[in-house]
Amino acid sequence: MYQYQCLNAISEAGLSLFSEDYQRTEEMAGADAVLLRSASLHETVFPEKLKAIARAGAGVNNIPLEDCAEKGIVVFNTPGANANGVKELVIAGMLLASRDIIGGIEWVKAHAGEENIAKTAEKQKKMFAGQEIEGKKLGVIGLGAIGVLVANAALHLGMEVYGYDPYMSVDSAWNLSRHIHHVKNLETIYQECDYITLHVPALDDTKGMIDREAAGQMKDGVILLNFARDLLVKEEDLIEALETGHIRKYVTDFPTAGLAGRDHVIVIPHLGASTEESEDNCARMAVREIREYLENGNIMNSVNFPNCDMGKKGKNPRITVLHHNVPNMIGQFTALLAKRGINIADLTNKSRGRFAYTMIDIEDTDSSGIAEELSKIENVLKVRIIL
Ligand SMILES: NC(=O)c1ccc[n+]([C@@H]2O[C@H](COP(=O)([O-])OP(=O)(O)OC[C@H]3O[C@@H](n4cnc5c(N)ncnc54)[C@H](O)[C@@H]3O)[C@@H](O)[C@H]2O)c1
Ligand SMILES: O=C(O)[C@H](O)COP(=O)(O)O
């Protein structure tokens, strides 16, 4: 029986995919797997039994990935599963920033109950006039699952789209419309675009990327959208640019004390992925990843270990070893099995940065004591025998 814990509300469409071999627990100490959305794990002391963490979503800056890897905990996310939900909200954000829809609706609310409201509205509506997005230039920074969808959708709305992503995947390249200008530097985006939208993860080299210098290169009156992470923008520099009107509007999915209620800022309470469809998609993918790892040892969509797949486990035990990516690990594993007279039916080893993963199918039914012996090898992080 496997135990799982949910640290955030995870859609039933996903949880119902757990078989009767899985039981929900409220205690992390007993959990084999944890599912979460944006709950922070940076202060968490991880229990020995924990094997997997699945982030039902894209961003993993709420999880200490290296720390988890050192403890032999595989962390997964659900790439692309909420991208459409975010794309739709970004388009809404662009429209809200272009037309004073919010101001207009508030005006109507304030005049509720007035007999002559229709007549007054016709007189007052010039206060809420705006501009159209068709024909304007949009810069998309980060052409991953969300960036590509936003870029293609904006193109269909008649915008001229510039995209920047030096690390773009082949999949994204396939999905991106060829009508998008693929630019090689951020300066072009800053200097050309009327709207700029951020779709990069919060990493060391992206945190604070929108600072005074970046803002200074942008066009006067630019509209900036941030549905990626608050940390990408230096708030004091942003506020300065908003006060001078250089940045005309900032639309963000991340409320902060400094921005909530401020003029020229539209703050949404992190709703990008909060749609029925995205929540269901993320939960389903997260549960499938956990089941595949716990039951077969296969890793797909990990963000701290390499992906590795040996198919469905056969009738004999499968040994899985998470370890540091250093020489002679496989030599030591196979020597240990050879010493016991155990033949290997199949073996896969994959590495990713400092970490690696080895899966071994043995031609023997008796695996007793192997896990203990393998665990003693230096640089081994976690051993599992899947029976
Ligand atoms: N608002 C929300 O609810 C919501 C929902 C999902 C994701 N997000 C955020 O959006 C981010 C992007 O999500 P995604 O699903 O598109 O992820 P993704 O991994 O598919 O795409 C990220 C893209 O950013 C690119 N990138 C990385 N560093 C870059 C850099 N320095 N300059 C330019 N491009 C760079 C990568 O090459 C990749 O193509 C997530 O990391 C998360 O922080 C927010
Ligand atoms: O990175 C993500 O997937 C989003 O920020 C969504 O976060 P949420 O699952 O907490 O809504």
Automatic annotation (TrEMBL):
InterPro entries: ACT-like_dom_sf, ACT_dom, D-isomer_2_OHA_DH_cat_dom, D-isomer_DH_CS1, D-isomer_DH_NAD-bd, NAD(P)-bd_dom_sf. It holds the Pfam family 2-Hacid_dh_C. Residues 318-387 form the ACT domain. Pathway: Amino-acid biosynthesis; L-serine biosynthesis; L-serine from 3-phospho-D-glycerate: step 1/3. SUPFAM superfamilies: ACT-like (SSF55021), Formate/glycerate dehydrogenase catalytic domain-like (SSF52283), NAD(P)-binding Rossmann-fold domains (SSF51735). Keywords: NAD, Oxidoreductase. It is an enzyme of class 1 (oxidoreductase). It catalyses: (R)-2-hydroxyglutarate + NAD(+) = 2-oxoglutarate + NADH + H(+); (2R)-3-phosphoglycerate + NAD(+) = 3-phosphooxypyruvate + NADH + H(+). The keyword Oxidoreductase applies. It comes from the Bacteria. The keyword Transcription regulation does not apply. Its EC number is 1.1.1.399, 1.1.1.95. CDD domains: ACT_3PGDH, PGDH_like_3. One of its GO terms (molecular function) is NAD binding. Belongs to the D-isomer specific 2-hydroxyacid dehydrogenase family. Catalyzes the reversible oxidation of 3-phospho-D-glycerate to 3-phosphonooxypyruvate, the first step of the phosphorylated L-serine biosynthesis pathway. Also catalyzes the reversible oxidation of 2-hydroxyglutarate to 2-oxoglutarate. This is D-3-phosphoglycerate dehydrogenase.
